[in-house]
């Protein structure tokens, strides 16, 4: 660590390992000159749980359930990417209806996740009323998830070669009613976030990630798209039913006509994506063909088939936070030889550094939160605790952030 | 910012084969269809020789700036295999090509050059390969551990399957005395 080289004018503050945003463990070390951040160092690994290693003793079906536990919020995306990787290695094709159902689940999860993020972002800058307003809408999205899958968070929907639960005709009225509710709320939320003077003052020009940095640091998801890079697995490739659907890249200039790559743009980006997700679910419901929902309903038979597979496969899915990619290698045993998970936050860590440089301490929570980090996804093994020096707790940081908002409101 | 030339998967393979000839082996182009309309997405797998690895990455960056998703690793017994998962041609509807470049390193000398000078975003994944597989990345700007705790023993690499693997750290619950 670089803290030894402290000069007279700058000093170091460690922040973490409980993250200032989203209550997740990551450790920052900031070099500060007065209020300005000069340099940032990020330390990871506080919740590495060795999930990849645990997979060595499990068969692909068991791994599906473990993949679901990589992350609480993206509990659909990891099994989805894993299933895609296995299907790629074993040459399994999912039935058409299943592909559409998979899109519906994926987009519903995106709505839940983006709404959760919007609430947290509002909380970080001291607008707790907006937090409750957004999470009220999210509650409805979770209720819809529960109605379709039987559970709110850990849904166990994905199956290798298909999906586990169908959407029947009698479910459609409730889905349509809820989608209409989301659309109504979308306009209301858009006004709150985009037109409020204080939100703009806190977010415009803060935490800028330039297009060049986003590309060079390999950022993914809304973080990279808010900087103007058109990269979205759903649009760029054909997987699930996304190849059939009418979908295009979304960048913040669709609304404002320009791309700044700041926190404000990342708010716009996620709001626009909520709307896109609602439209995609509607398209899927209209165009969904009838038929089977899984290619091989007998799990014992499927496992016997997978046991013979040798080879490797890669599955990529656009999770709410960005691209998640899984690599699987089979060598003809029960358990896969290698399973590598790469969660979106893994790639969105390095972009934090240019974003945070030059900002104020009070901006750390909102800038850090603006990439929607998920540390549990990124770290998968042990615990270490350093930072024996002067430390800012998340409460102090949050207080500073709220005070800054209050100052601006005066 | 950077120049961008879009090539089809077949052209891409030819682009590399013309430059590196026999140093590129086992090239496979896989196309996978999905959905009702059966639109396809192409994936290229290729093995490159260790000696030309850095050149291949430079050659790729000359064409267009690729997106590096991650590098995964396998312990194959006598060698360690690293697979760099790139995507190119993104930004247009269903034009993206997956490019998986694999390189094998002998266990006697598991060393490879860094690609951070071309793709700065490769830093975290290269640090992970160092601590998890015991690969030495030559010229990496930051060689600290990334995910493993600081008190994790030196010379133990969790992804290895030989004597450098983590087997001696395992504790079976049924063997632990109460």
Task: Please tell me about this protein's structure.
The complex is a heterodimer of chains A (410) and B (178). Chain A is mostly helical. In chain A, 48% of the residues lie in helices and 12% in strands. Chain A has helices at residues 51-54, 60-68, 77-90, 96-124, 128-149, 172-195, 197-203, 211-216, 221-225, 233-236, 253-256, 263-287, 299-307, 344-347, 352-356, 364-369, 375-378, 394-409; strands at residues 11-15, 27-33, 36-43, 158-159, 162-163, 310-319, 322-331, 338-342. In chain A, the strands form 3 sheets. A 3-stranded antiparallel β-sheet of chain A has the order 1-2-3. A 3-stranded antiparallel β-sheet of chain A has the order 6-7-8. A two-stranded antiparallel sheet of chain A has the order 4-5. In chain A, α2 (60-68) packs antiparallel against α3. Chain A starts with 10 loop residues before the first strand and ends with a helix. The model of chain A is unreliable at 379-390 (pLDDT under 50). Chain B has 178 residues and is α/β, with parallel strands linked by helices. Chain B has one domain (9-175): Beta Polymerase, domain 2 (2-Layer Sandwich). Classes of the chains: A mainly alpha (410), B alpha/beta (178). At the A-B interface, α8, α10, β6, β7 and β8 of A face β1, β2, β3, β4 and α3 of B.
């Amino acid at each position: 660590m670089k803290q030894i080289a402290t000069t007279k004018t700058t000093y170091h503050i460690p922040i973490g390992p409980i993250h200032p945003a989203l209550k997740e463990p990551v450790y920052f070390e900031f070099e500060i000159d007065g209020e300005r951040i000069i340099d940032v160092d990020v330390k990871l690994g506080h919740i590495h749980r060795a999930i990849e290693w645990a997979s060595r003793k499990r068969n692909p079906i068991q791994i599906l359930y473990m993949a679901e536990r990589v992350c609480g919020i993206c509990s659909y995306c990891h099994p989805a990417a894993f299933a895609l990787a296995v299907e790629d290695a074993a040459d399994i094709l999912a039935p058409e209806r299943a592909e559409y159902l998979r899109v519906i689940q994926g987009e519903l999860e995106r709505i839940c996740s983006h709404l959760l993020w919007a609430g947290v972002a509002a909380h970080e800058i001291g607008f707790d009323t907006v937090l409750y307003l957004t999470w009220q809408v999210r509650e409805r999205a979770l209720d819809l998830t529960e109605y379709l899958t039987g559970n709110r968070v850990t849904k166990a929907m994905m199956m290798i070669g298909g999906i586990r639960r169908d959407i029947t005709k009698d479910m459609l009225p409730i889905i349509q009613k809820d989608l209409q509710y989301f659309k109504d709320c979308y306009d209301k939320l858009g006004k709150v976030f985009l037109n409020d003077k204080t939100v703009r003052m806190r977010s415009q020009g803060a935490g800028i990630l330039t297009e060049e940095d986003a590309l060079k640091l390999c950022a993914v998801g809304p973080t990279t798209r808010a900087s103007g890079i058109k990269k979205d697995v759903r649009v760029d490739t054909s997987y699930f039913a996304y190849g059939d659907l009418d979908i295009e890249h979304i960048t913040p200039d669709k609304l404002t006509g320009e791309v700044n790559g700041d926190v404000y743009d990342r708010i716009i980006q996620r709001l626009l994506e909520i709307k896109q997700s609602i439209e995609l679910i509607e398209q899927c419901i209209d165009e969904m063909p009838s038929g089977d929902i899984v290619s091989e309903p007998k799990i014992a038979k499927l496992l016997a088939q997978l046991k013979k597979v040798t080879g490797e496969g890669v599955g990529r899915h656009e999770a709410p936070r960005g691209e998640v990619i899984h690599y699987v290698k089979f060598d003809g045993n029960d358990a896969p030889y290698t399973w590598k998970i790469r969660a979106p936050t893994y790639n969105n860590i390095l972009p934090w550094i240019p974003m945070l440089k030059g900002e104020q301490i009070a901006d750390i929570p909102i800038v850090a939160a603006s990439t929607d980090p998920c540390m549990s996804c990124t770290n998968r093994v042990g615990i270490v605790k350093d930072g024996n020096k002067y430390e800012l707790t998340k409460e102090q940081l949050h207080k500073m952030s709220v005070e800054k908002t209050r100052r601006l409101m005066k | 910012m950077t120049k961008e030339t879009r090539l089809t998967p077949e052209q891409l393979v030819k682009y590399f084969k013309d430059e590196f000839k026999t140093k590129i082996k086992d090239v496979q182009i896989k196309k996978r269809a999905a959905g009702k309309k059966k639109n396809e997405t192409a994936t290229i797998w290729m093995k490159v020789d260790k000696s030309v690895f850095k050149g291949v990455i430079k050659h790729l960056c000359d064409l267009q700036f690729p997106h590096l998703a991650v590098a995964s690793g396998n312990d194959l017994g006598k060698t360690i295999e690293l697979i760099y998962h790139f995507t190119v041609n993104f930004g247009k509807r269903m034009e993206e090509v997956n490019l998986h470049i694999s390189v094998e390193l002998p266990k006697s000398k598991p060393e490879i050059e860094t690609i951070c000078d071309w793709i700065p975003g490769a830093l975290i994944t290269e640090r992970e390969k160092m601590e998890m597989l015991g690969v030495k990345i030559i010229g990496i700007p930051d060689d600290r551990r990334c995910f493993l705790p600081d008190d994790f023993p030196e010379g133990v690499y969790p992804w290895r399957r030989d004597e450098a693997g983590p087997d001696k750290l395992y504790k079976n619950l049924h063997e632990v005395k109460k």
